[in-house]
Amino acid sequence: MNNLLVHYPDPFHFALMITHVFAGVIAPLAATLALLVIKGAQAHRRLGQIFFWCNAYILVSTIGLCLFRFSFFMLVLGSLSFYTAFTGYRVLSLKRPAQNQPDHPLAMDWVSAGVAFGLGLALVVASSASLIWPTIDLGTFGAGPYLGILFGTLLTVIALGDWQRYRHPPTERNAWWMLHMRKMMGSYIAMLTAFFLNVVIRLVPPDLARFLWLLPAAILLPLTFGWIGQYRRKFSAQA
Fold first, then answer.
1. pLDDT tens-digit profile of 174-215?
2. Does residue 1 register a pLDDT over 50?
3. What string of DSSP letters covers the chain?
4. Rounded distance, CA 42 to CA 47, Å?
5. How far apart are CA 217 and CA 200, in angstroms?
6. For labeling, which of 66, 107, 157, 232 is most exposed (least CB within 10 Å)?
7. What CA–CA distance (Å, rounded) separates 56 from 85?
8. Whose CA is closest to 197, among 86, 64, 81?
9. By the 8 A CB rule, do 160 and 184 touch?
């Protein structure tokens, strides 16, 4: 505790860091449990809500932490995790709206997609510029500008896809189910990647650290696509 107080002498900075770490532990734990319980059950919904609101706080606290130590890279990575969780959560309302709630995209859906696209594009440009001028510090913690280009591009592509989906909603009956799964798993992967970049790579040799951030995506992406394919076959058989 004394060492932490030395590194974070400002009480507000210290409180932000502690709560940020706490939310960063609770969110992936809630997401893991949500994957294990019955989909659509009350426990699944409650765990999903915990994951979503922890995700929201992680983004807010990341913005606050940037006031003390700016990291454009972590800001965009936090935005990627929250935006995919937000859109994955919103798709449930767009499919089955609550009473008096419209089933078409609202202003917040369009605006959030625009902000996500702008942030992702800005990181791509800044990361590309840092290849030419290495003095530009994006706060990548040794991850390098190529990782910034990758995640910036990913955020812009996701935002553009959502914008297109709002203009031309999918006609597949269970498209919302697949989208919800893909979005929430994407947020889960982004959050675990941020954890690996912030914590895990500091504990391993540098030669291993440069590849370790790929681990969440390498494991969970194939599982996600396989899971989605399984549900597609299930829905096709039912139809």
1. 888 889 999 999 999 988 888 877 777 777 776 776 677 778
2. no
3. -HHHHHH--SHHHHHHHHHHHHHHHHHHHHHHHHHHSPTTSHHHHHHHHHHHHHHHHHHHHHHHHHTTS--HHHHHHHHHHHHHHHHHHHHHHHHS--TT--SS--HHHHHHHHHHHHHHHHHHHHHHHHHH-TT-----TTS-HHHHHHHHHHHHHHHHHHHHHHHS----TTHHHHHHHHHHHHHHHHHHHHHHHHTGGGGS-HHHHHHHTTHHHHHHHHHHHHHHHHHHHHHHHH-
4. 9
5. 15
6. 107
7. 9
8. 81
9. no
Quote the CA–CA distance of 115 and 78 in Å, as a whole number: 13
Alpha-carbon distance of 141 to 186, in angstroms, equals 22
Report the Cα 195 to chain-centroid distance in Å. Answer: 11
